Structure prediction request, 200 residues.
Amino acid sequence: MSLLPFFNENLIEAGCDEAGRGCLSGPVVAAAVILPKDYENKLLNDSKKISEKNRFRLKEMIENDAVAWEVAFVDHKKIDEINILNASFLAMNIAVDKLKITPELLLIDGNRFKSNGIPYQCVIKGDGKYMSIAAASILAKTYRDLFMDKIDSEYPIYKWSKNKGYPTKEHCDAIEKNGYSNYHRKSFVVKSLYQTKMEL
Prediction:
């Protein structure tokens, strides 16, 4: 199925998505993207369905082609303070507020959202349905991956350049052996470790 260019062609729409919600470490990163109404890009798709090489190719294309785009980070400390769901909403709202053009409608990937006042439409698996959400998923994913690659050099034992902070067995084993880093989300690492062990 080809991606749809817009939900309502009469409104300025911004697609919004986040990356890193299910991670044990690092920030949650959100992006907001306003694309031209007639935008075409055959490579564009849900970031999870695209190779890393093509995601970074698309990152440059989106940054060059978008009418407006922004990325926002909410760190692990704030995630521990307000929980990951609210942190995801916060990151998306920050990204939207930073846009140089104020959108009239937000297309949100997922089934829930808390807006700062702009009307929104939640779309389940929206990153595989609408171009602007797919573009936001690409930016959120690539910017977060770059951040995790950067902090991997501080704590190479956790292999973040490989797992990006997700709860792989290798990552969980490293936490059990070495404890938390300064980037771990302490609020749900213990729960995730228990669940991972139960699933293995």
Notes: The chain has a mean pLDDT of 92. The first strand starts at residue 13 and ends at 19. Residues 106 and 120 are 4 Å apart (CA to CA).
